Amino acid sequence: MKKILCSIGLLLLILAGCGDTETTEKEMQNLPNLSNQTPLILVHGTGGNTDTFDSFSDTFIDDYKLSNERIKLEIGTDGKLIYHGIFTKNAKNPIVQIGFEDSIDASIDQQTDWLRIAIKDLANKYKFAQMDGVGHSNGGLVLSTYSQNFAKTRPLLKRLVVIGSPYNDLDENDNKGDLDFTDVPVTTPLLKSYEENRDKINPELLVLSIASDIDDGSFSDDIVPVLSALGSRLIFKDQSKVYLESYYKGPEYDHRTMFADHTIQEHVAWFLYTYKGDHQEINLVNN
């Protein structure tokens, strides 16, 4: 899977652009208490960086007016954190764009541990009590692993959105079937591990899983088979308070850029900031 996803990473690096200026230690002093705010943590996929979600957060800030501030946070392979920007006391639904120094060779477990370092530091600095997360591709796997390994650790993960995340890897033969599937033909070690740790998931978690099909006969988003992306139902459906699925079909819903599609962004915004999630709900896509 790494070799295939490396090509995605190269494209994302091109799309990402340049990073912002590193924030100094002096600028990091006297930070506001934002315990009344729920930050949105954005986690990129293989080969991405802190800039990968720029267009996504631009839409949430400039178009939807759902947030008014964002920062970027790089995480080194040694756990060193480099901040780009700070939040002010006026921050509303602040956005944090995560960037891993190594998202190509590092395992999902390793990236999850690095994410925990970053989240812990953010909580110490801004006193966040809870958070929401959006992950694209392997970034969704990182947040899913986080939801199991750190389910009861503050800040609590309250809402999780996964976009084109390969829960059952990328092999077409392992993911044959249709939208009504109740299991996959072959359960890979990755999916098996998630299934074995289902009981660790916070029962109050709200999950939205997004899959797409570019409609070329592959039943995939050109990288991730639909059944692999919706393998999330085998993990979260009976464990989280809410589990919703969305399925998009058409050539515009390519894996590499689907998180930048405005239709998908609107749906994510609805789930994060309009959908109440005040009762148990399961909504699966079907044929």
Automatic annotation (TrEMBL):
MF (Gene Ontology): hydrolase activity
InterPro entries on file: AB_hydrolase_fold, DUF915_hydro-like
Annotated signal sequence range: 1-21
Gene3D superfamilies assigned to the protein according to its UniProt record, in alphabetical order: alpha/beta hydrolase
Organism per entry: Listeria rocourtiae
Alphabetical list of SUPFAM superfamilies matching this protein: alpha/beta-Hydrolases (SSF53474)
Keywords, sorted A to Z: Hydrolase, Signal
Protein name: Putative alpha/beta hydrolase family protein
